[in-house]
Amino acid sequence: MSSASTSPVPPAREPRQERDTPIVVRLEPRAGTAPSGKPPVRLYLGSEKAQHRAERIFLYALERVRDPGRAYEIYVMRGMAGYDRRGWRTGFTNYRFAIPDYAAGIGKAIYNDVDQIYFADPAELFDLELGGHGYLAVSAADTSVMLLDCAKMAAIWNLSAAQTRSKEQLLSAAAAHWGQLDLAWNARDMEFQRGQSKLLHFTAMHTQPWQPFPEDYAYRLHPLGDLWHDLEREADIAGYQAFTASRPSAAYTPSMAANAKSRPAAPLSDRMLEFIVADGTRNAMVLTAGAPPATPAVPAMIAINLAASAGVWPTGKVESVVAVNLLERLPPEDVPWAAERLFASAQRSVAARIDCRDSVPAAGGEPESRLSVRSPEWWHDLFRSIAARFPGIAWFLETPASTDAAEATAVFLNDGPRLFKTKPPQVWLLLGHRAGDRAQLLALAEALGWPFEIKELQYTGRHYLPNFLQAVTTLSLDPTSAAQFLAPWPDIVIDCGKRSVPIARWVKKQSGGRTRLIHLGRPWGRFDWFDLIVTTPQYRIPPRANVQINAVPMNRMAQSAIDEGTGIWRDRFAALPRPWIGLIVGGRAPPYEFDAATARQLGEMASAAALKAGGSLLVTTSPRTGAAEGDDLVAAIGAPAFIHRWTAGGTDNPYAAILGLADQLIVTGESASMLAEACGTGRPVAIFDLPRRPGLLASVIDGVEKLAAGHRGRASYRGTPQQQDRFARMYDRFIERGLFMPLRDFRAYQETLIQRGWAYRLGEEPGAWPRQPQQDLDRTVARIRRLMMSDGRQL
Fold it and tell me: Hey, what long-range contacts does 89-92 have (CB within 8 A, 24 or more apart)?
């Protein structure tokens, strides 16, 4: 984890049930591989309850890169007993210093923080010689990745010292035993180099892609976050879990036996029973970890007490699977696979009642404690992530969280598989006047493949009001546009831009809240108005649960237009020497300027690139290219070139042909759509930056945003991001509430393209990392399908 900062220390986040020994995950040599004969790789992982997603992906990343012929022993240190946690930045800060005792003072051990992912086999690290040192780390003070000699360090770092002394005291006592570890084993944030770094460490808590502490941080986009999210998508597709039904945790069987004497579950609620029989269910199975509930019978309802069967699950499938008094009684390590078994055993639906209270009253005795006390939101996230792999299963989740009142029970429902089994969702597109917005909306609707209606919008002057001041009405539309909006109301509304937001919200209100709202671009309002916001990096929208940040807009040039253009223009370019370098020129887009000096520099740099390659330029300008600047650009071009100057009303435009025919492209960096269309060709794209010259208002906003970057935008002593401070959190809350929209930052957008291997800066060499496939449209379609078929909504 990153170093301490002046931010307030959040409270310790430890589970109420503590353990004396770490959780052991053992990876045996894979079947069919020759055993390596080397000793098991022993690794200790510092973790905590809220880091369950990071923990899973840490293990999955390790599984991908490990030696298949070797055994690995991962000791997960989570919720360890006996520690004085005062002053800890994380819930596991001092666990690492007890490793010599946890390892019985024998041999070597690796330590890792949970916010890391391996890109090389940790066996390489484990097999290093310590050269007489007690531990190897990138610095004596940074122990987030270590290789330890447990025997040598046992006198200094041990359980007693770790439980009672501060981190600073323990580091000071061991400083003389430190040895240098290669920085590749702990690449912190943007230190990471593709193909060279062996481990990526997400150090700043407010940029961790999995967002473990939403109550404490206003999360920001991490430039390398897609590396983590790609791994999570892979793990989801593979159905990866550290423990499984065939390989449960060591605590599973004892905990099931301990549940044998638990009191009967509460009867099924009327709402749950209504859900179970809603689609004509004829048979259902109720699974419990104790006496089954007394409840009205669904036809052929079978009750099974897993505690009585020593935790052995039934085989086969039934139409509906019901879990009560079960998941909350399992060890946390076994909850994910057990919840997945519910879905795997169901043909139509899953229903669960999960007690989220710390304890429940027991007649004539002490309250019964639960093993897996989590929030309703945590269980909702678990169910929706599992349901994404079982899109045909409807589900219902009931989560009592307090003994005070019935309304303290949160209820989540996913009935999409029932509603859309025979009839697909109905979609409305709200189209305005901007061509780029229209292109994105149409591209997304066509990719979804569901029936859609186009609503053409014309506005009155009311649309100029900020959206948070506008009523949820159609008063900002002219009467002809407003007349289009009639029941039956759609299942989904997709809109883009500021003006359509009140209209989309009005449709949702008319539908009784049933319609889902999908917004593209800046939200121009409160994030919680929308079910999903699909945006891109230049808008600097903080990532949230209902925000998807794509690399590029979804308005690629249609292949048919490119094919038509190449057929018309190929012969006109034929006399020019190859390679052909397309030069696509934008223009002024405040605060980005395109003046005479900039135009001349672009012409000179593009010409130099063409002459160096022995080729020529295919040049086209745009509506934003000023006439005088266009003249300066043309005058500066000294390479063989075809030059097209955009004119209003002109029809003979080679833009699509240049995209289709150029061997490489140079694009000015102020247009997200031009860059997206260029990168969509799969050819090398060089970005030419326009100078950013903000006016007075923009300069003030820039100053506020710099302060809000977290610790006034400063880095830590090692160059990595500082933790977020109070001002930064407050700033992002303003954005979430729609009270402030950041300025566009095309530098952030360009960096995303560069990190994905799609582009590089003109005058620099292309990055050595491989080009990643463009999957944003597919990801967005999958996310919307999951929203309708898997995610569930709170009732």
Answer: 89/1, 89/4, 89/9, 90/1, 90/46, 90/48, 91/12, 91/13, 91/14, 91/48, 91/49, 91/50, 92/46, 92/47, 92/48
Which of 462-471, 582-591, 684-693 shows the lowest mean pLDDT across its residues?
Answer: 462-471
Helices 376-387 and 335-344: crossing angle in degrees, nearest 10, is 50
What is the H or E stretch that residue 146 is in? strand 145-149
Name the nearest CA neighbour of 719 among 139, 70, 107.
139
Q: Which residues pair with 346 in a beta bridge?
A: 318
Distances 80 to 72, 92, 164, 171, 360 between C-alpha atoms, Å: 22, 8, 13, 20, 25
CATH topology for the 427-549 domain: Rossmann fold (3.40.50)
Q: Are 66 and 122 in contact (CB under 8 A)?
A: yes
φ, ψ of residue 669 to 5 degrees: the values are: -90, 10
CB 358 within 8 A of CB 400: no
Please calculate the CA angle 315-316-320 and round it to the nearest 5 degrees.
Answer: 110
- Tell me if 103 sits within 8 A of 42, measured CB to CB: yes
> One-letter amino acid identity for 721?
P
pLDDT at residue 8 is higher than 50: no
Q: SS3 string of 86-101?
A: CCCCCCCCCHHHHHHH
What is the enclosing helix (H) or strand (E) of 788?
A: helix 776-789
Average pLDDT, the chain: 89
Same fold: 427-549 with 559-688: yes
Alpha carbon distance 524, 365 (integer Å)? 55
- Phi/psi of residue 646, nearest 5 degrees: -65, 140
Does the pLDDT at position 780 exceed 80?
yes
Closest by CA position to 235, among listed 110, 92, 117, 344: 117
Q: Residues 443-459, buried b or exposed e (16+ Cβ, 10 A)?
A: bbbeebebebeebebeb
23-238, CATH topology level:
Spore Coat Polysaccharide Biosynthesis Protein SpsA; Chain A (3.90.550)
CATH number of 559-688: 3.40.50.11350
Cα(791)–Cα(738) distance, integer angstroms: 25
pLDDT in tens, 206-237: 889 999 988 777 787 888 888 999 999 999 98
790 contacts 391 by C-beta, under 8 angstroms: yes
**Which residues are within 8 A (CB) of 134 and not within 5 positions of it... i.e. 6 or more apart?**
148, 149, 152, 153, 156, 174, 177, 178, 179
Give the closest residue to 44 by CA, choosing from 164, 148, 136.
148
C-beta of residue 755 within 8 angstroms of C-beta of residue 223: yes
Helical (H) or strand (E) element with 493:
strand 492-496
User: Which residues are 477's β-sheet partners?
Assistant: 459
Q: What are the tokens at 498?
A: 């500021």
Which DSSP string corresponds to 706-761?
HHTTTGGG-B-TTSSBPPP-HHHHHHHHHHHTTS--PPP-HHHHHHHHHHTTSEEE
What is the widest separation between alpha-carbon atoms in the chain?
A: 95
Handedness of CA 655, 499, 450, 344 (dihedral sign): positive
CB neighbours of 531 closer than 8 A, spacing ≥ 6?
A: 516, 517, 518, 546, 787
pLDDT of residue 11: 32
Please give the C-alpha separations between residue 1 and each of 19, 165, 269, 302, in angstroms, as whole numbers. Answer: 22, 19, 45, 49
Give the lowest-confidence range in 5-14, 78-87, 268-277: 5-14
The reported pLDDT for the residue numbered 732 is: 82
Q: Which residue has the tokens 């299942």?
A: 491
**Integer angstrom CA distances of residue 544 from 295, 374, 673, 731, 736:** 40, 20, 24, 15, 9
pLDDT average, residue stretch 478-496: 96
Q: Where are the domains of the chain?
A: 23-238, 252-418, 427-549, 559-688
> What's the pLDDT tens digit per position in 521-534?
999 999 999 999 99
Residue range 348-383, pLDDT digits in tens = 999 999 988 866 555 445 556 667 778 898 999 999
- Count of residues in the chain: 795
